[in-house]
Design goal:
45% of the residues lie in helices and 11% in strands. It has an 8-stranded parallel β-barrel with strand order 1-2-3-4-5-6-7-8, surrounded by 4 helices. Helix 4 links the parallel strand 4 and strand 5. The chain has a domain of 222 residues: Alpha-Beta Barrel (TIM Barrel). It is of the alpha/beta class. It is built from 11 helices and 8 strands.
């Protein structure tokens, strides 16, 4: 952990955290030069931290050597610009997750972000054992549980509360599919856990949510931070137009690329990041389909017509 970064806890985990996209070479290898620049690009945007792994970071397509290089570069560069970083350590087994946690700790991760192993659906006792064992591996480094339907199950509020009681280093969740009603239910069972969603924190913060783990920060991080600051200040009337614009961008421009064109979230996240000025390229790891620069141009044209207030200020780099 960098000296100027405070340890993360249940009490202070909050804000807008940006998902890091990994630039690949034409041989599907890490482009370290561009990745360093990508991590550093979030300095000064107002985001509260960055994180690796998840769908945006294509953790599922990384071998051990690539994972280690990405983790090392991400931690070094984030800390160098004063940003805390959570390292994704999801794997198909406890053994794999523990190996990744060791790599993350060696690199200086400020927290471990991890989903349940996702090939077979875990039973409740397996969930609790898994969290206890990864917490044991992580030691004092806090855990953020990624509650995703891709793990074939969610951790229900009652079980979440039991885990929170048993594992003091479990400090928060990432749950992009939870409605405000579910946020309130989770907080009844685990009242001091930091509950995060995605860009829809306009709805969740009044229910007790702490912020968002976001990919739209790739398009315009400052606007997402502006929305967050309005929300935590209780200025919902002022926040509503910006929240509606971000919601339109998500549901009218980005999600249709998934539903209608067969792109995965990772490809769409790259499209919006390149449109936002990021030099990450549109290439996804094979065998997954990539977007194109035509998608980037289409997204910018849609935004100019429908939500010009969200347009990024940076020039769009080449492919």
């Amino acid at each position: 952990m960098a000296q100027n970064i405070k340890p993360l806890s249940r009490k202070n985990l909050h804000g807008v955290w940006s998902a890091l996209i990994v630039p690949w070479t034409d041989r599907d290898e890490l482009d370290a030069r561009r990745f360093k620049a990508e991590v550093r690009s979030y300095a000064g945007t107002g985001v509260h931290g960055v994180y690796t792994g998840g769908t945006t970071g294509e953790f599922y397509a990384q071998d051990d050597q690539t994972y280690e290089r990405i983790t090392r570069v991400a931690c070094e560069q984030a800390h160098d610009v004063g940003l805390p970083i959570q390292i994704g350590a999801t794997g198909l087994s406890t053994r794999t997750a523990r190996q990744r946690i060791r790599i993350a700790l060696k690199a200086g991760a400020d927290a471990i972000q991890i989903a349940l192993p996702f090939w077979l659906e875990l039973k409740d006792d397996e969930v609790k054992r898994f969290v206890r064992e990864i917490a044991d591996e992580a030691g004092k480094t806090p855990l953020v549980l990624y509650l995703t339907s891709r793990s074939k199950r969610k951790i229900e509020p009652r079980l979440l509360g039991e885990i929170a009681d048993e594992v003091p280093t479990f400090i928060g969740t990432k749950d992009t599919g939870s409605e405000p009603k579910r946020v309130k239910a989770m907080l009844r069972h685990a009242p001091d856990i930091a509950i995060f969603g995605g860009e829809d924190f306009y709805l969740r913060i009044p229910a007790g949510g702490r912020g968002g783990y976001c990919s739209i920060t790739g398009f315009n991080a400052r606007k997402v931070v502006e929305l967050y600051e309005l929300c935590v200040a209780g200025k919902r009337r002022e926040a509503k137009p910006l929240a509606e614009s971000i919601n339109r961008l998500l549901h009218e421009a980005l999600i249709p690329m998934v539903k209608d064109e067969g792109l995965w979230d990772s490809a769409v996240d790259r499209i919006q990041r390149v449109a936002g000025g990021g030099d990450v390229g549109v290439r996804c790891q094979l065998p997954y389909r990539s977007g194109t620069m035509q998608h980037v141009e289409r997204l910018l044209a849609w935004c100019r017509k429908n939500t010009p207030e969200l347009l990024p200020l940076l020039p769009v780099p080449g492919k």
